[in-house]
Amino acid sequence: MGEKTLFVVNPVAGKGRGLSYLRKIKSFLKDNSFKADIFISSHSGNIKSELENFYLNYKNIVAVGGDGTINEIVNATDDLTKYSLSIIPVGSGNDFWKNIDKDFNLSSFLKSLFNSKTLKKSVDVGNLSVLNRQKDTSSIRFINSVGVGLDSMVAHYHQNHSNISGVLSYLIALFKALKNYNAIEVNVSTNNKTITGKKTLITVANGVSSGGGFYLTPKAKVYDSLLDLSIIDQVSLGLLLKKLPLALFNKLSVEIPQIFYEQTNRVSISLFKPFFVHADGEIVTKDATELKFELLKNKLEIKY
């Protein structure tokens, strides 16, 4: 493969699986005399700042990590059209990978990548503008989903308090969040509707699932030029404990009638009180007051 390739490795992804895959990647490159550069992040959350001026000359970027790793990569450069992104899904949740709908095998993927036989798909990338309590504004891209409410508190607990990987990690974080959570009061506007009141959870998504496999936006497609909005009304703790795990089996919308769902190209959210917000599972602010969403259509090429 003539184009320059960079592997971006998050060593703590999947509670250490990133380093395990790194050894296999190095062995493959050596055994097959393939050339590629490898970048190992010093710690999770630092990829964006370390890569901003580093990978502009690469045509192929391979994310060795999860949704948070992908998120940092797509936020590290202004022009998403300068490279193709591939994913070695070794994160705790790997929700974005579920949109690819393909079983992953490292050896097969590497052989396809270096023999230019990978498949390609252009996908949308979301953009989120945040106004916080201090009236500061910031902008961040997301590849999979943004959440405010219960799922952002789950992301907070998962990010800071769990040493377990996979779906179990998210379930533990979910029960911690349920124990301490109160509904948030919001005003949500789309092209077609305005919704006001106390809500348990709001998800604005590009992809079908979040939180390690909870299908909160099951109609979403990462290439359909639409944002998917899912809102769960304020419901009892007992109902949440009973029904929310059904989202793991894509049955939540059938079992909880208090769900509003819309596909749109514009969403804005005003929060009556500042709250946590996550983008692709990573907390981006703890005191958001206003959120505005747009979609960068067919902006990123995925090789898989």
Q: Would you kindly provide a written description of the structure presented here, covering whatever features stand out?
A:
With 304 residues, this protein is α+β, with helices and mostly antiparallel strands. The chain contains 8 helices and 13 strands.
Low-confidence stretches: none
Q: In percent, how much strand structure appears in the residues?
A: 35-45%
Q: What characterizes the major β-sheet?
A: 13 strands, mixed
Helix percentage range: 10-25%
Overall radius of gyration = 19 Å
Distance from first to last alpha carbon = 15 Å
Oligomeric grouping of the chains: single chain
| H and E string | EHEHEHEHEEEHHEEEHHEEE
**SS class:** alpha+beta
Strands, total number: 13
Mean pLDDT: 89
Shape: globular
| Count of helical stretches | 8
Describe the structure in brief.
This protein has eight helices and 13 strands. With 304 residues, it is α+β, with helices and mostly antiparallel strands. The mean pLDDT is 89.
